[in-house]
Design brief:
- Helices cover 76% and strands 0% of the residues.
- The chain is an all-alpha fold and 94 residues long.
- The protein has one domain (2-77).
- The N and C termini lie far apart (95 Å).
Length: 94
């Protein structure tokens, strides 16, 4: 009877060691969980960046719709447009 308990105890210890090694060293073990946690953090940061970009764009759309001066500013700065009889001077710093 004592031998059976020793054998069972030995098998349980062996199983615990094998499962521990498998859990730590396998591709689906601790390393995988850690990697996925880091990927999740990266994706959450990307989501925050996109939300910030969306908020900025929504603000620009609101300005575009509500402020006539903003339309003129964009037309002048980004599209390099001018009113009739205006002269635009371009200069470069060398």
């Amino acid at each position: 009877m004592r031998n059976i308990h020793q054998i069972i105890r030995y098998l349980l210890y062996t199983e615990m060691i094998v499962l521990g090694v498998f859990y730590i060293g396998s591709p689906h073990g601790v390393q995988s969980v850690t990697r996925l946690a880091h990927e999740c953090e990266d994706v959450e940061q990307q989501v925050l960046n996109v939300k910030r970009d969306i908020a900025t764009l929504e603000l620009e759309v609101d300005q575009w719709e509500s402020e006539p001066f903003y339309k003129e500013k964009i037309a002048r700065e980004q599209l390099q447009m001018a009113r009739k009889n205006e002269v635009i001077y371009h200069y470069s710093v060398n």
